[in-house]
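Proteins fold reproducibly. Consider a sample protein:
=====
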Amino acid sequence: MTDHISAAGWQRTFELKSDRGASRAVMDVLLEQLGAHDWEPSDIFAIHLAAEEALVNAIIHGNKLDSTKKVHVDCRVSRDHVRIEITDEGQGFDPASVPDCTLEERLEAPSGRGVMLMRSFMTRIAYNAKGNSVVLEKSRAAAAG
C-alpha cells in the first residue's frame, strides 16, 4: 500500500481480508486524509458512514466472510472531491432489489439501511453490472456567496 500524492490529491489502493474489522485499515487512513484536505466535519461524518457501510457489505454480504476472498478498495481524496471504489469477490447483487427500508412495513427490518445511507450521504453512488463493485463519490458543496 503506497500513497500517491500529487497536485490532484491523495490516492491509495488497499486489499483487505474478508474479516470483521478489516475495514479499520482503510477508514483510519481515509479519515486522516479527509482532515488533511480540509473537509468539513459534517462531510467527514457522511463519507465515513457511507464508506464503512459499503466496506462491511462487501466483507459480510459480498464475500460472506470467506477468508479466501479479498476486498479491493481504491480511495482518492482531493480538496473538492472524494472517490471510493470498493470491489468484492462475491457473486454480486441487484441494488434495485434492495427493499426501501423507510416503508412502514420495513421499519423494523434489519436490511437495506446501509444502501439507503450511502445514497443519502454521497453525491453519487454507482454499481457495476455484476453488483459486486460500488463507487461512492462526494463533491464538496460550493461555498455560498
